[in-house]
User: Which sequence fits this backbone?
């Protein structure tokens, strides 16, 4: 299967918005927060669920269409002339860090290197544009994505509680380019 990663063009938007953004997981990262005098300790523990669960994406499917002009770059993955997924990025004010708010792969193409190809494509774009670091955000429930970024050399670098409109926790993973 040949995966072509390229810049998104406006005619891609309708097909990209039709992708099912939900995902399935058997594990989650559970946060425990301990506070004391002069101390705050946040711990994330991998927890196996009693059964697989389907998780809704924290943004609606029109997020890409409504915010396309706010992204520094949107890359798409194309397989046999079908759009298999996309990744978005915003360059921070220092131009040293590019943040990845969205990595979406169509269900038919999951676990087939599409996500890897999108991240690697964004890394190449980042190096070409003198970006020093990529930071990927994801729901703490998105265990499959956390495993993917760990495999690609990204390290946990923080979290934000009640980050998304649905009040889910986000985890941040980063990698120097």
Assistant:
């Amino acid at each position: 299967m040949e995966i072509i990663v390229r810049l998104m063009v406006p005619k891609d938007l309708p097909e990209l918005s039709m992708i099912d953004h939900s995902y399935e997981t058997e594990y989650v990262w559970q946060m425990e927060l301990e506070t004391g005098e002069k101390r705050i300790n946040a711990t994330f523990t991998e927890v196996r669920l009693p059964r697989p669960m389907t998780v809704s994406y924290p943004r609606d499917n029109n997020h890409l269409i409504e915010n396309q002009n706010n992204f520094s770059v949107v890359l798409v993955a194309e397989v046999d002339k079908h759009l298999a997924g996309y990744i978005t990025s915003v360059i921070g004010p220092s131009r040293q860090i590019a943040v990845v708010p969205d990595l979406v792969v169509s269900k038919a193409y999951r676990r087939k290197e599409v996500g890897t190809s999108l991240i690697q494509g964004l890394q190449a774009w980042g190096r070409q544009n003198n970006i020093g670091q990529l930071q990927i955000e994801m729901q703490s429930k998105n265990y499959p994505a956390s495993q993917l970024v760990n495999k690609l050399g990204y390290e946990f670098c923080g979290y934000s509680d009640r980050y998304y409109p649905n009040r889910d926790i986000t985890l941040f993973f980063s990698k120097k380019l």
Residues 114-128 form the longest helix (15 residues). The longest strand covers residues 39-55. The chain has a mean pLDDT of 94.
